[in-house]
């Protein structure tokens, strides 16, 4: 996988507002926030898109969801939305798997 802005954040080569970190994941504020609270949960393992994940990634993917929930609670969110874009046609612009966590305002459905 080629270097991405997220790998640069993981390696501390560019700054980010880091909210949480453990051995498997990193959480930081989205610089293009679409809600009052908007952060990204990423694996440290480079997986370009969700469709590139394998059975071996099952525990990691579950871990990312638990981290999203933990940080959402730390940010004071009880209602929030998770979004994963898979591929350019789904508006994925950084090809390193990431979960958007958005909250702090009401959301409508469908999202667009």
From TrEMBL:
Residues 5-112 form the HIT domain. SUPFAM superfamilies: HIT-like. A motif (Histidine triad motif) lies at residues 96-100. CDD domains: PKCI_related (cd01276). It comes from the Bacteria. This is Histidine triad nucleotide-binding protein.
